[in-house]
Amino acid sequence: MLIARVEQARGVVFIRNGREYSADEAATHLRRKLKAARGRIRTPEQFIEHLGTRSSVTGKPYRVRLPDGRSLDSAAWLRQLLRDVRAQR
Prior knowledge:
By secondary structure, the chain is of the alpha+beta class. The protein contains four helices and four strands, in the order H-E-E-H-H-E-E-H.
């Protein structure tokens, strides 16, 4: 559900290893990483910590640029997104 919310994040730019990606591209990348983890990720918190925060190749943190121009680490943005998802249940 969290990756689906990433995919729906219109106007958000994901920055991975210095390159910019759309929400759709970011969601596709995160789904590939989750699939490669082969069941080792069991919770959304583990997903954020181990897959959604940094490049597994370079170790560089992922960044998110919001529609208002603010930029922050993806970890903070994903944690807030998770809180929003849980609040809507």
